[in-house]
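Take a protein:
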Amino acid sequence: MGRLLSMDMENREGDGMNPLRRARYFQGFVVLFLAILWAFPAGAAEDKAPKFPGEITIGQTRCLLNGFGLRKKLIVDVYYGALYVTEKSSDAKAVIEADKAKGIVMHFVYKEVEASKLVETWKEGFEKTAPTPTPALKDRINTFMGYFTESIKAGEEIRLLYEPGVGTRVVVKGQEKGIVPGSDFMKALWGIFLGEKPASEGLKKGMLGQS
């Protein structure tokens, strides 16, 4: 009986997990972590941030590099995003609302992002920035998402270039896909990057020059 009581007391000590079980638990965690790293090897992406030009021309307007940041998904680096504006600003709302030339350049560093994943990500973003779109805006959002029919590989870019009175020019891997008209669409799109619920806080801060 004394032996049984002693064993019971030992099992009740600490957090209820004996050293052997704790070691096995930790070992399992390490194995899982290494499996994730194996699935997303560092060599599958470009290791350094791209050198974004200090300025670009959108239509006839010169736009300056406002800042850039990294979009991560869990522990994976997906792309660097750069924001171009006519006047530098750290005010996200002002940048979104301004009906002026502006651009976003997405330079991908992950080995390959499938088209379906791109569309899914855009859809999730628009659900936050335009949860109840008008029928006309919804049609333009669908038109925009229809431009992404091919996967994007490391080193390739997506460019979103807005011109007042013209719309948002969409360039994928150097090929112009089309122009989506309307400042309402522009604001919904820019909100994905700079809104109150952005796709990435780190990317947002980088684009606004806050990091």
In short: Residues 1-15, 33-46 have pLDDT under 50 and may be disordered.
